[in-house]
């Protein structure tokens, strides 16, 4: 999945949860949902494909592990206990949805790192960050390729509906 797939599907999941669970209504901060939905990639892509490209050579490293998710949960719980910042509670949920959307169970050596070894498998894409980015764009936005294209289109549609709904609800502020 790429940016809009993660954003759209995660926002939709939280929107549906908010509709089905009355206790959540009006309490979901979608800005933090968006950050959580992209958090593993915001950390791992620059780290594994740019900063440590020679040693890691992968865009799925530390932030795509269960250890990372558990640490995010612990940090958020500690912050919540001190400041009761309910809006932060969506971050771990959105981050774990990212792992599910990436089908991380298919790469258990990453998901269960370091319990299955200390190294991460290298991506199949050789080259630097720009080469990686061009490969992703070439493959993600080609309708003949895979579910990545479908999830991106679906994610873009969900994001557009969300922006229109937000704009309609906030028009009175101006």
UniProtKB/TrEMBL annotation:
This is LexA-binding, inner membrane-associated putative hydrolase. Keywords: Hydrolase, Membrane, Transmembrane, Transmembrane helix. Pfam families: YdjM. GO terms for molecular function: hydrolase activity. The chain crosses the membrane at residues 61-80, 87-105, 144-167. InterPro entries: YdjM-like (IPR007404).
